[in-house]
Design a protein that fits this description.
globular, alpha+beta, 5-stranded mixed sheet, Fumarylacetoacetate hydrolase, domain 2, binds magnesium ion, binds 2-oxoadipic acid, 6 helices, 13 strands, 8-stranded mixed sheet, about 25% helix
Length: about 240
């Protein structure tokens, strides 16, 4: 772990490291497509032993289409998480309330996030995982997009299955009690660095349940109440 080598590393410095590693991706031709929140549900906090929400950057190279198949061998030890995603209809910065943040959203959909970690066995501190871009690796958005005003966004049932077996069940309520609170928290954290969200960007609100390890041959399905299905295969 990074903090084992540099114990005095601060959270602010970890976010600076995260941006430095993003700058290298941008130099390689990737572009910023959005942001993700992490550790926003009790299940995730307890699984990882880190009890504070974090954010990471999503790039074009992480974007996968619904029904995509990934090669397990391209990853270290990938895991999948059931998520809710926002599509920003307007720029958003400052310190909005959850209600204000939601007004800047044009669409909501279900999403599967693939996380992977540089750290052995996903063992890290808050500062380590922030420096590693919050384990961001890939994401799949559902194709059914709804305006937030047409959904009970604060309590949507979520069922994640692998190879036809239900592996995790939950609700969008697990995400800081309402996914809009995760969005507002993200904007507040970005604001502390003079940044914000841009129209068209994607925001993942954070896993509603614990993450599940992926194996070759897995076919993952997420069903979100009112938002249809999202699928991911692993070869
Ligand atoms: C950190 C990333 C957490 C989420 O949705 O909570 C995350 C990790 O667990 O490796 O993406
Ligand atoms: Mg996640």
């Amino acid at each position: 772990m990074l903090t084992a080598e540099i114990p005095e590393l601060t959270l602010d410095e970890a976010y600076t490291i995260q941006r430095a590693s993003m700058a290298r991706r941008f130099e390689r031709g990737e572009s910023l497509v959005g942001m993700k929140m992490g550790l926003t549900s009790r299940a995730k906090m307890e699984q990882m032993g880190v009890h504070e929400p974090i954010y990471g950057h999503l790039t074009s190279a992480m974007t996968l289409p619904d029904g995509a198949t990934i090669a397990h061998g391209d990853y270290c030890h990938p895991r999948v998480e059931p998520e809710i995603a926002f599509i920003m209809g307007e720029d958003l910065s400052g310190t909005p309330t959850p209600q204000e943040a939601l007004r800047a959203v044009s669409g909501v959909c279900g999403a599967l996030e693939i996380i992977d970690s540089r750290y052995k066995d996903f063992k890290f501190t808050l500062i380590d995982v922030v420096a590693d871009n919050a384990s961001s690796t890939g994401y799949v958005l559902g194709t059914k997009l709804k305006h937030p005003a047409t959904l009970e966004l604060g309590n949507l049932g979520m069922v994640m299955s692998v190879n036809g077996q239900v592996v995790e069940t939950g609700s969008s309520a697990a995400i800081l009690e309402h996914p809009a609170r995760s969005l507002a928290a993200l904007v507040k954290m970005l604001n502390a660095r003079g940044e914000g969200l841009k129209k068209g960007q994607v925001v993942l609100a954070g896993g509603a349940t614990k993450a599940v390890a992926l194996k070759p041959g897995d076919q993952v399905t997420l069903e979100v109440e009112g938002l249809g299905r999202v699928e991911l295969g692993v070869a």
